[in-house]
Amino acid sequence: MAIMTEARLDIVKLSQHIGAEVRGIDLRAKLDTEIIQAIRRAWLDHAVILFRGQDLAQEDLIRVTGFFGELGKLARPQEFFPKGYARLLPNIMMISNIRENGQTIGALPDGEMMFHHDMLHAEVPHDATLLYAVEVPTYGGDTLFASGVAAYETLDPAIRAKLEGRTAFHHYNYGSTQRGDDRGVAAFSESTHPVFRTHRETGRKAIYVNRLMTVGIVDLPQAESDALLNALFDHSERPEFVYAHVWRKGDLLVWDNRCSMHARTDFPSDQRRLLYRTTVMGQERPY
User: Fold this and answer.
1) Reduced to 3 states, what is the DSSP secondary structure of residue 144?
2) Does residue 2 have a pLDDT over 80?
3) Nearest CA among 133, 162, 117 for reference residue 257
């Protein structure tokens, strides 16, 4: 795809509806205000931005997170996470399948994950997520991003009219305590948010439900709710709305949780995978 220049940035679209690569930037360097504003604009325009070939210390990741807002806090004190977290600065999350003495050092270690919005289960979900690749397997573990905006704008008008103004109930229950299968950090939370979310900064609407966490539409019979949600899930996950990211060491991805959702493909359990994750605090309850 054609390269565009914006405030000295080279920006290359990654797919028709979502994602762009920002080229020619070393995120360890001191960047001026104009460049930071242009990076943020690219993120708002494309929902997902990619920086390849970065060599970031934890301090760099924390600093870059600040380009997008206030650093998000971990859902629990660090001592409740696997032992590997002792090596991290506060509020960095370790996503890893690496085991030491039979114990995982990070969270969400193995296998695929269905499409979801990070922190959808919270009263005030986080606005953004950053994920930096330290070690990646030879194949698999790809991250898929789906545009909630493109899905909303192409939704069947009858379904849209039926659900406009309605809210959905979300439930999250994941981790070794609940599942008993060494899947990582235990977590439990519930929330209610609009089915269609309006983005505070762009004004665009996006579908804001997902297959992993959304369990019902408020004040609808369960059968009708299930049918409508399945239609939304199927529509939102259509391939034309999705960018599939194949990770390389040194990749940094930043995505907007307000208007995109993501999933993970399976990968070899005998190959190491290690990524560092930060988030950006939300500014308000979804509306």
Assistant:
1) strand
2) no
3) 117
The CATH-assigned architecture of domain 3-280 is: 4-Layer Sandwich (3.60)
Helix or strand or coil: residue 236?
A: helix
- Region of 47 please: left (phi>0), alpha (psi -120 to 50) or beta: left
Residue 195, C-beta contacts closer than 8 angstroms, at least 6 positions apart? 163, 164, 166, 167, 168, 207, 208, 209, 217, 232
Domain extents in the chain:
3-280
**Quick one: pLDDT at residue 4?**
42
pLDDT tens digits for range 107-165:
889 999 999 999 999 999 999 999 999 999 999 999 999 999 999 999 999 999 999 99
Question: Hey, is 147 helix, strand or coil?
Answer: strand
Q: Compute φ and ψ for 158, nearest 5 degrees.
A: -70, -40
Q: Are 63 and 84 in contact (CB under 8 A)?
A: no
**pTM for the whole structure:** 0.91
On whether the CB atoms of residues 185 and 77 are closer than 8 A, the answer is no
For residue 139, the number of C-alpha atoms closer than 13 Å in the C-beta half-sphere is 0
Rounded distance between C-alpha atoms, residue 208 and residue 206, angstroms: 6
Cross-strand pairs, 133: 275
